[in-house]
Amino acid sequence: PAPEAGAAISDDALWKGAAAVLDANWERDHTVPSRTLYPHHWNWDAGFIAVGLAHHDPARAWADLHSLFSAQWIDGRVPHIVFDPDVSERDYFPGPAFWDSAAMPGRLAGLTTGIVQPPVHALAVVEMWRRSPDEVELRWLYERLAHQQRYLLERRNVGGAGLASIVHPWESGLDNSPSWDAVLGAIPVDLEMMRKYRRRDNRVANSDHRPTDADYARYIAIAANYRDGGYLDAGLIDRHLFLVECPGFNAILGAAEHALAELAEVVGADPAPHRERASKITRALVDTLYADGSFRSRDVRTGELSPALCVNGLIPLVLPDLPADVVDSLVATATSERFGIGPLPVPSYDRTAPDFDRLRYWRGPIWINVNWLLWRGLRTHGRAQEAAVLRESMLSLVRRGGYHEYFDPVTGDGIGSAAFSWTAALTMDLLT
Ligand code: 9WN
């Protein structure tokens, strides 16, 4: 249910429309990202959705994260998808049969993938606790959130710098971002192998918006390699071609430690180790991934930084302990012609890049979740004016077009699913 077209829509109507999207996307014990393309429970979506549910229906916020973390593996990883057993294998590719997680010793419950997504959940839990405290749930989640951090900081510290590596583009949440082009370029494309499978995404959504067949062939090859190694992380450097330190993923990891420090005080645990880990992550990010006014992703195998300037390079703004000169240059980049906070929010990729693509998913379109993170970051660093402009530009996109999955960065038109859960959820947070 999109709001009526036109800028005249009231905040009250916008709120009610968002609530209706979240209600329609609620399924038993979790919220699906959208009814059209994503019929299962997604990891980082659940974090953003819980921020909105904390305003709208806090019991559901706690329940949504409870069911996601019930699928946490023994080693601490929280899978990027928890599959709904009532949904047919045909309705999402790659589904449970491909991931074969039922056969994996590290899995505890549910049918899941074996890869992760950015750990935004602790940020949501702070909001949930503030608005509607549930001590039993908080204690249950705190242990599991801390376990997730340990998995990412220890087992995924493949590069040795104290940052987590992602082992698949899907782990970043920014699937086909130009951030991975250089790394993916070295991985052979096996279109023959893809004939064994049938993509579903580009039949449900416009194929001009979706990752290409060559991208998909690589996604499947990388996932199959990790799966065939039993989803183990030891020795990855010798047997896995996609190992990347993403600045967005690691900034969220650091912000999660800050959030956990706050939560530790509530549950009577020691907040100091969380603060220490947070400051180590910030230092490692600045020392390893910062170059020319923005953060870049790093290919752990070659040590090379990606030349692509993407929205994940700005996300470290969420870190409260980022040095002031780094904050200044990130704000300068975010407000420059490359990203240009203004009438429109920040696109997913540098507007001035020759291969900027206004339709293709994370290669140009505007996404509300990453802009919401930047909005939080700007406020954390006292940049109230830029934050206010960004907030208004996000709300005006949704007022005009509805709760879309992503938006055309030239016209502001809504594209992708029209009833996307995190867009609705974060709209509610922006309105309060
Ligand atoms: C793969 C669910 C997810 C988001 C990601 C987004 C997209 C999946 C896909 O949808 O990725 O995880 O099939 O394209 O890129 O950020 O979590 O909304």
Q: What attributes characterize this protein structure?
A:
432 residues, mainly alpha, Glycosyltransferase, 3-stranded antiparallel β-sheet, two-stranded antiparallel sheet, 18 helices, 48% helix, binds (2R)-2-(alpha-D-glucopyranosyloxy)-3-hydroxypropanoic acid
As laid out across the biggest beta sheet, the strand order is 3-4-5
N-to-C span: 21 Å
Top-tier CATH class:
Mainly Alpha
Number of domains: 1
Number of helices: 18
Overall number of strands = 11
Largest sheet: 3 strands, antiparallel
Oligomer: single chain
User: What is the N-to-C order of secondary-structure elements (H for helix, E for strand)?
Assistant: HEEEHHEHEHHHHHHHHEHHEEEHHHEEH
CATH-defined architecture: Alpha/alpha barrel
- Bound compounds, please? (2R)-2-(alpha-D-glucopyranosyloxy)-3-hydroxypropanoic acid
CATH topology grouping: Glycosyltransferase
Report what the structure shows.
- The longest helix is centred in the middle third of the chain and has 21 residues.
- This protein has a single domain, classed as Glycosyltransferase (Alpha/alpha barrel), CATH 1.50.10.10.
- Helix 17 packs across helix 18.
- The chain has a 3-stranded antiparallel beta sheet with strand order 3-4-5. A two-stranded antiparallel sheet has the order 1-2.
- It has 18 helices and 11 strands.
- (2R)-2-(alpha-D-glucopyranosyloxy)-3-hydroxypropanoic acid binds next to helix 2.
- Keywords: Glycosidase, Hydrolase.
- InterPro entries: 6-hairpin_glycosidase_sf (IPR008928), 6hp_glycosidase-like_sf (IPR012341), Glycoside_hydrolase_63 (IPR004888), MGH1-like_GH (IPR054491).
